Structures are given as structure tokens and as C-alpha cells.
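Pasting as-is:
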Amino acid sequence: MRNQNPSDYATDTIGAVLIVASVTLLLLYPDLPDLAVSSVNFALTGLMLLSGTNMRDRQVLEWERVGLAAWLAMSPWVVGVTAIVGVTWTSTICATLVFVPAALQVSQPSAFCRVPLPRPNRDARSPEKRKI
């Protein structure tokens, strides 16, 4: 298992919250057509936040989270759902909760300890162990 830090916990939690929020919005307000676009946006962003947990390069992972948080903060205006105040606030709060820990990790270059790739097992017939 990889080392978990506050950015990982925040991102995993917010990713799950966004997926649950997308389903909840569609179930509670099925008659609002603009809400379907926002729900799809929440679901896709949540899935992207959750899918990044398997990345090996820590710095790329944190920069991806910063970019997703920026998209999440801008998306109500880009998608055009700012009239629905709950969606705007949910998006802004979730973006802040993802951005702050990720930005703290990015601002500390020493925090990016690269995990070495596992070396393949060498069997008895490798060139170093052959008897000549």
C-alpha cells in the first residue's frame, strides 16, 4: 500500500461525495434539464479524482488534482448552471477542499519522494549467475 497523506484522503472523500451528489441531484430534481449536465460533470470529475490514486509519480498526481480543482471551481460558469445556487456552492466547496491539500503538496518539492520501481526477480539462469 502506498503512503497516504492529507491530499489523498481529501481527494478520495471528495471524489466519493461528487459521485453521490451527482446521483442525488438527478433523483431529487429530475425535471431540471441543466442539472443533468452538472450531474454528469460531478460524476466524471469524481471518477477522475478517484482514478488518480494509482499513479506512481506523486508530482504529476498533485498537479492533476490542482487542475481538476480548478475545473471544478470554474465548471458552474462554463456549463451555465450558476442559477442553481446549491450546485455552485457544492462545486466551489469541493474544489477548495481538493485544491488546498494538493497545493500544499505542490508547494513543497521535498515532499515528492519518488517511489522506486520494483525490480524484476532474477532467476538462477540470469547472466550474472551462470557458471561458465
